[in-house]
Write a structure and sequence with these properties.
The protein is α+β, with helices and mostly antiparallel strands and about 180 residues long. It is built from 4 helices and 9 strands. The N and C termini lie far apart (about 105 Å). About 15% of the residues are buried. The N terminus is likely disordered.
């Protein structure tokens, strides 16, 4: 398009580029300036396109974060929040927690304060062995304590008991532990 507009001058372009400023013809100078302006316009256009692409990428990234990452974090925080609520509110009652060697039963008294639990996981430890028992019935309400009798299945002599509350569908970390004495 530019060459057609300046058709007669197109042959002078090589000649124009090799001459000093004084010897350049007006026709060749116009042609050279047209090509220069075209390349400057392309550069300006590519800068605008690059900026728009960057803005588009940022918008897409924000969309991905808001749709995927934020719901995952909210889910983790809500479940962690219930376990944090249970911390310090689920404890053993030392007076009624013991091991009955004759009947091979561990009595565990668990106190619950200020939280509503869905159950407990009681882990009984011996030297090198352990048993895990889940309690989901007969749960204490807020500010109550209950005694549970757990029969030792594996024949271990229990030394330590740890309790993990179940909050909703999630089992929390162990909240309390006690060294067992004989009843």
């Amino acid at each position: 398009m530019i060459i057609k507009k300046h058709g007669a001058c197109a042959r002078d372009l090589n000649y124009f580029l090799n001459l000093s400023n004084r010897k350049r013809s007006a026709c060749a100078r116009d042609l050279f300036l047209s090509f220069s302006n075209l390349s400057n316009r392309k550069r300006s256009l590519s800068t605008v396109v690059a900026t728009l692409l960057m803005v588009l990428l940022v918008v897409i990234a924000v969309g991905i974060v808001s749709q995927i990452v934020i719901p995952m974090i909210k889910k983790d925080l809500s479940s962690a929040g219930s376990c944090l609520d249970a911390m310090g509110n689920v404890k053993f009652n030392n007076e009624y927690t013991c091991y009955d060697k004759t009947n091979r039963i561990t009595r565990v008294s668990i106190e619950v304060k200020k939280v509503q639990v869905s159950g407990f996981v009681v882990n009984i430890y011996s030297e090198g062995n352990s048993e895990s028992h889940t309690i989901k019935e007969g749960l204490p309400k807020e500010n109550e304590a209950r005694v549970y009798e757990i029969e030792i299945i594996t024949g271990i002599i229990p030394k330590t008991v740890k309790v993990s509350p179940i909050m909703g569908s999630e089992t929390c970390e162990e909240m309390d532990q006690i060294i067992l004495n004989e009843c």
